Sequence to fold (377 residues):
Amino acid sequence: MSRLKIATFADLHVGVTTYGVIDPSTGLNTRVITALQSLDTMIDYCIDNKIKYIVGAGDIYKNSLPTPTLQREFNIRIKRAANNGIQVYLQSGNHDVSSVEHAKSPLDPFNTLKVDNIYHSRFKKVFNVDDLFNILILPAYCKQEDIEKILDEYNENKPTLIIGHLTVLGAKLNDWLVEQNELAVNSKVFIRPNIFAVALGHLHKHQILNDQPLTYYTGSLQRIDFTEEHQKKGFVVLDVDLDKNDTKYKFIEIPSQKFFTINLDLKDSDDEMKVVTNFITMNDENIKNAIVRVLLDVKKSNNINEEIIKKMLIDLGCKTIATIQKNVDRDEMIRNKSIDETITAEQALRLYFKDHENSEELINEGLKLLKLMENNI
Fold:
């Protein structure tokens, strides 16, 4: 067999619970259920399409100490893939294990128990797959010099798929470059004989970085937060012809938790609530089953009614209301711009409250406090 298909995924982050609630029927957080459903969808696809190999490029869990319940739920699903004859290769990412070298990954029991068809490593490891090709797993917390050393010493002649959990120079975490924020690896390091693809995890945006060898981020299976609001989510299937040294790929988009931001500038509006309610009504499909946040730029004197907004969102079937945030123009909040460090505290007090309806009372109370402060009481 010279042609084979490999499903690759990363950054499942089982254990993320932000914006979720407990599902009474399972006792699991709804965000955990959504992540597990994504894994189910991928495994179903592999079974239905007779894909023999699944590779996970790190960050299976949110942290290195997932609860036994979370481990059980993940293990049940991976075991289902294995029981259907699919070989599963899992790499530990930075969330799966601490940087301490002797620390164990929650994926390590697969090694200890020697579960059929399931393989794992947090360190450099070469797997000979059916004597057809190799999978080279790079260690967690891998740096440029580490990769160069590993590949310089790697002298296997077999076609090789590299799995890494790291940041590549020029890769994007949404719409901005990230190499200035993290230590990044130059993708040219992977241009070596026999390497037919480099599947990466760590950055959640699916993206192709190079064609030769095919170097890409699978993207996360689920949206984690609002920074991923507009990203498509899914996994990548490699279609490899080993004889012709030809690697094609297909991104398989799957259903993902919706996030939706209502972001309105209402500073020049005469009726802020009408603008908000009209916008909500027009976006009913975006709101349904979504985690929603509301960001409103308003005048200090506005007619925003948060309870009405909440009720509308709930009635339209939003999953969670993350926040309703009113941002008031700071210039408007300053009652008198002549208040600065050149005047006395008493003068500032009188200027600040002079237009308030209870100005005299507030000024008198303020003067009492100033007097107490002066007397160090």
